[in-house]
Amino acid sequence: MKLKESAIILLITAAISVIGNFVGYKVSIIEAIPGILILVGIALLGIILADVIPGKIPSVAYIVTLSTILTVPGVPGSAIISGYVTKVNFLALATPILAYAGIYTGKNLDSLKKTGWRIVVLSIFVMVGTYIGSAVIADLILRMLGQI
Amino acid sequence: MKNVKLHIIALVLVVISEFIGTKSFAVGVGSIVLLPMLYAMVLGVFTTPKFLKIAKEKEMDDAGSLIGLTLMLLMAKYGTNIGPTLPQIIAASPALILQEFGNLGTVLLGVPLGVIVLGLKRETIGGAHSIAREPNVALIGDKYGLDSAEGQGVLGVYIVGTVFGTIFIGLMASFLAAYTPLHPYSLAMASGVGSASMMTAGVGSLVAMFPQMEEMITAFGATSNMLSGLDGLYMSLWLALPLSEWLYKKSYKIKYGELPVTPAAKEVK
């Protein structure tokens, strides 16, 4: 019954997302329902595929691949799917995730307290270094390719 | 899974956060963007036992077990942005692949700083070899053991990244977009270096600033994030860790005038 539980959680997240989508981005809940149900359907299909196809590929990989293929221009129905999914703002989908993540983060506060200040400073440099390193390389190559 | 209280807390947090909405603050020549998702995270922390005590131990545990699932709708949505932009993504693939080496920027900046300025020892190798997400923690655990100095380093950076990373990447994306000539597409790719929520905060800030580029920004961010998931472990194992070890010795020599005593590292199985 693992799949049923996953489906329930996905539907709860979907419900919270369309409410947030209405509050934050003024898209009526009725209008967002087809799009969010398409996303729930793709997510469930991805979970099922990860379960039945051998190779231990995580379901997220199937989900992104599926929704990419379904919306490539020219694929039958892609315009319809894109049209519905556009009604669901991606920022509205992110807010519930971070609400749960914030609640879970409460668990990490004790470990954070035990982490010395030097590691905290190091962490900041790690994030800045990785981010800027990637951005600078991406920028150089995109300019060389003439894409920006 | 039947924790109704948890879902109600999440719903209330989402409604409050979305009601406040995206705020941009003009700072100097640019502006810094604050997104509802960042409020939701901060407010979420405030509901926990250390603060308002609305969420209890059970809610925190259940929330942790749900995050993976709640991410899936967002991932499906990202795919629907990648599909229509697939030709451009493929055309940009050299940039997407090469920017993965930006991870080495971490080592070049983090290791000398950790050893010379902060006076850390082998914690630096664990902590500064990568942005310390789950695969990197697993790798260090396997190679040195998580109770070693290297393990303490990687766990420390992992915890700090978990608590502050999302907010930090969100702010950094908006700051760099406002104050540097780096293109939003490049910043979108860079936003994919860490976890999925870090990436979402990064691309979210960029989209708030450049709404007409939404599809490309989210598609680049999501693709880069998936690539990092695929290559992150090998990048660490084959490039970042050896480079960290080498740079650690150099930095140690500069700081203490002698080479470090060779530690008894656990053999890689």
Summarize the structure.
Helices cover 80% and strands 0% of the residues of chain A. Chain A is built from 7 helices and no strands.
Strand content of chain A: under 5%
Question: In sequence order, what are the helices and strands of chain A, one letter per element?
Answer: HHHHHHH
User: Proportion of β residues of chain B?
Assistant: under 5%
Helix content, binned percent of chain A: over 70%
The ordered H/E elements of chain B are: HEEHHHHHHHHHHH
Strand order of the largest sheet of chain B: 1-2
Structure characterization notes:
- The complex is a heterodimer of chains A (148) and B (269).
- Chain A has 148 residues and is mostly helical.
- Chain A has 2 domains: 2-107, no CATH class; 115-148.
- Chain A contains 7 helices and no strands.
- The N and C termini of chain A lie far apart (49 Å).
- Chain B folds into 2 domains: 1-67, no CATH class; 94-269, no CATH class.
- With 269 residues, chain B is mainly alpha-helical.
- Chain B starts with a helix and ends in a 13-residue tail after the last helix.
- The relative contact order of chain B is 0.13.
- Chains A and B meet through helix 1, helix 2, helix 3, helix 4 and helix 5 of A and helix 1, helix 2, helix 3, helix 4 and helix 5 of B.
What is the element layout, followed by pairings?
The complex is a heterodimer of chains A (148) and B (269).
Chain A (H helix, E strand, L loop, with lengths): L1 H24 L3 H24 L6 H13 L6 H8 L4 H16 L3 H6 L2 H28 L4
Helix pairs in contact in A: 1-2, 1-5, 2-3, 2-4
Chain B lengths: L3 H17 L2 E5 L2 E5 L1 H11 L10 H26 L3 H6 L1 H6 L4 H15 L5 H6 L5 H10 L5 H31 L4 H7 L5 H14 L4 H43 L13
Antiparallel strand pairs in B: 1-2
Helix pairs in contact in B: 1-2, 3-12, 6-12, 8-9, 9-11, 10-11, 10-12, 11-12
Keywords:
heterodimer; A: 148 residues; mainly alpha; globular; B: 269 residues; 2 domains; two-stranded antiparallel ribbon; 2 strands
